[in-house]
Specification:
Layout lengths: L1 H13 L6 H8 L1 H8 L3 H9 L2 E2 L3 E2 L28 H14 L2 E2 H11 L8 H14 L2 E6 L2 E6 L1 H8 L2 H26 L18 H16 L5 H18 L6
Antiparallel strand pairs: 1-2, 3-5, 4-5
Helix pairs in contact: 1-9, 3-7, 5-7, 5-8, 6-7
Length: 253
């Protein structure tokens, strides 16, 4: 019963959009936000990512493993602690989506929500100012369709993407990962048997039980060694470095 109640509360929170002061005020007054946005990119940056975000971790710790609050072994609560995305990250993701298909703003919002299984669905008050800024930079062009605008990727925007491919792939993979993680945990808490594919993989996520178990075991092992001596930390770091090299090597087909 306790697990069922937690699952219900977790799913409800995971599907809610952030409702901070910024989103409420600007979603009702999009034109006011466009006027303020003209004051410069810094304004949008402060609103979108002040204090760090879940792609980069806490402020001052970019690239140090932040994001999404833990691995398979956590209870899910960490996933909803923060869904803030920096302005730069949001702009890069929008360019990545525009590379696939010219889109209206609301289509881009839906695409990000679908990619993350509803975990991250940015508000119009975040997306439209970001698109305006990309247009001002020359990274995107606009095709007017009556009262609507369809955004296209411009060549300078493609060049910007080319310089940030690895970063964009990591962000999209994090969104896809949390979507699968939510599906995995929902199914586990439901008590229903999993639908299994021809190689024993869960059909909803594509994950094998032994893959999930291995990640849980690694996380537990590292937690158990929180107070490890410097010598033990070096030993563990060497093991993880070898494992990382093997994982990044030739992949199985």
């Amino acid at each position: 019963m306790r697990d069922a109640q937690f699952l219900t509360a977790f799913v409800r929170r995971a599907r809610q959009k952030p409702q901070g002061r910024h989103d409420r005020s600007h979603s009702h007054h999009p034109h006011a936000h466009h006027r303020h946005h003209g004051e410069g990119h810094g304004h949008h940056q402060r609103h979108a990512g002040a204090g760090g975000d879940w792609f980069s971790g806490p402020a001052g710790e970019r690239g140090e493993g932040g994001g999404f609050g833990g691995g398979f072994g956590d209870d899910g609560r960490g996933w909803t602690r923060s869904r803030k995305v920096s302005a730069d990250d949001l702009q890069l993701m929008l360019l990545g989506l525009l590379e696939k298909n010219p889109s209206h703003g609301y289509e881009l919002i839906k695409a990000l929500g679908a990619l993350s299984n509803g975990f991250y669905t940015p508000s119009p008050g975040m997306v439209y100012p970001a698109l305006t800024y990309l247009e001002e930079l020359g990274y995107a062009t606009v095709e007017q369709e009556g009262a609507k605008k369809r955004y296209h990727l411009a060549e300078p925007g493609r060049a910007h993407l080319d310089g940030n491919r690895e970063r964009l792939a990591l962000m999209f993979n994090k969104l896809k990962h949390v979507a699968r993680k939510m599906d995995w945990m929902r199914q586990a808490w439901s008590g229903e048997p999993r639908s299994v594919g021809p190689e024993g993989e869960d059909t909803a996520t594509g994950w094998l039980p032994e893959f999930v178990a291995a990640r849980q075991a690694l996380k537990r092992a590292l937690l158990d060694r929180t107070d490890a001596s410097p010598a033990e930390q070096r030993r563990i770091a060497a093991i993880l470095a070898r494992a990382t090299e093997d994982i990044n090597g030739q992949a199985c087909s």
